[in-house]
Design a protein that fits this description.
Blueprint lengths: L2 H37 L6 H28 L2 H28 L1 H21 L5 H7 L8 H5 L25 H52 L1
Helix pairs in contact: 1-2, 1-7, 2-3, 3-7, 4-7
Pfam family, one: Tetraspanin
Membrane topology: Multi-pass membrane protein
GO cellular component, one term: plasma membrane
Length: 228
């Protein structure tokens, strides 16, 4: 195998090592989603999303390990399978990205609205239903602190900086629904960035895999020609 093919092999091994690390990162991120879903009273399908992200991370990890073994052994059939698997993986990730950007947006928005409506009904009956979100996200009410004035409730300490409502300036201005939506958008942004990095890297990996496959096949033909 020539110098160029050796370089491609080493680059393919390096790329698959990076894919393994990113696959593990996705698994950890999916677990974070599941933990977050268990703690949140607002159901937005985080447990399903977490399961899908973990599954994607596991698949990426398996394909990366398979790609490393195929490159090390310079096995043409394995390299061809690897290239095909990477192409399918890229298409799957593009589908996930489309769902994260457009397909689930309306559904998530509807779930957030419904969840906070339930919490606000509970708040009307017994104070403290929103306290967890107010302390966590530094927000007040569903839309703003004015929500409490509308239902003639005093602004709770969870709405204030350090739980001390000294004056109006110490009250959080942002509503919890907007704060929670921003928190979710930040999590989805991390997922999108990791996925796009993987898609770009996997496209390069598929090209390197094909180049190595072609090089191994050509070398095999030359060897057969010499023996003939």
């Amino acid at each position: 195998m020539g110098l160029a093919a050796t370089t491609v092999k080493h680059l393919l091994l390096l790329l698959n090592f990076v894919f393994s690390v990113l696959g593990l990162a996705l698994i950890a991120f999916g677990i974070f989603f599941l933990i977050s879903a268990a703690e949140n009273a607002v159901s937005i399908g985080e447990s399903v999303a977490g399961g899908l992200i973990i599954g994607l991370g596991v698949v990426i990890l398996i394909i990366a390990i398979f790609g490393c073994l195929a490159a090390i052994h310079e096995a043409p059939v394995r390299l061809l399978i690897y290239v095909g698997a990477v192409v399918l993986l890229i298409l799957t990730q593009l589908l996930f990205l489309s769902m994260a950007s457009h397909g689930t947006k309306d559904g998530i928005s509807g779930s957030i609205n419904e969840g906070f409506e339930r919490l606000w009904e509970a708040e009307r009956n017994e104070s403290g239903a929103l306290a967890y979100y107010e302390n966590w996200l530094h927000c007040c009410g569903v839309n703003s602190s004015e929500d409490y004035w509308i239902i003639h409730h005093a602004i709770p300490s969870s709405c204030c900086l350090d739980n001390k409502c000294v004056d109006q300036s110490s009250v959080y201005k942002v509503g919890c629904k907007a704060a929670f939506t921003e928190y979710l958008d930040d999590k989805l942004l991390v997922f999108k960035i990791v996925c796009w990095l993987l898609v770009i890297g996997e496209a390069v990996g598929a090209v390197f895999g094909w180049l190595l496959y072609s090089s191994v096949k050509n070398q095999s033909r030359r060897n057969n020609a010499v023996w003939m």
